[in-house]
Specification:
It is built from eight helices and twelve strands. It is an alpha/beta fold. The structure holds calcium ion. The site of calcium ion has 5 residues, from loops.
Amino acid sequence: MPTILVLEDEKALRDMLAFSLVRAGYQVLKARDCSTAKALISESIPDLLISDWMLPGQSGLEFVKELRSDEALKELPIIMLTAKSDEDEKILGLEVGADDYITKPFSKRELLARVKAQLRRAPTKDDSSLTIGELSVNFASHEVILQGNEIHLGPTEYRLLEYFITHQNRVFSREQLLNRIWRNNTEVDERTVDVHIRRLRKALSVAGYDKFIHTIRGAGYRFSHKTAL
Ligand code: CA
């Protein structure tokens, strides 16, 4: 039973979130501010954090940033709740390290879908290969098999695919992808990301698997083989 920590200062919303999550079979811890959340996390790391953006004292955004600077919490899935539908704000949330965001008001169904997506995130690369449907990526040999045939990707497209497949259901901004795939190459700009995404999609399209790469308007890209989101 995964444990979800809900950080929300508004009592009614906090209780509603907890109620919905408990009913869906999760164990829930509640916190009304960052210091309470911090204390709970230091006792035991939850499987997922849902954090409001606007909180008294330290904001959710600052809190997520702080958590991500802790090596032990780098992989903790985090969903931000935001009342802001402003795209820049969403990107900011993702850039400090949130994995996804939910804009208020949201339905219970949307909440549970996003929670589920974060909790079923792909295993790490320690496994030597990963298969989704008829797409298989071997992390040691860099071999990519699609419907029984090897497909040949450029080195950047391979790195993108490997990154996506090991970080499924998360939204990445172009800047995040630049940092993670291209490392410190300052020569490339964000349009480069689009170019390589296009190439990767084209390579995957022979089997219709390009649909796994979702363009999230105003935010970036998400790789997901669950089209429901
Ligand atoms: Ca709030």
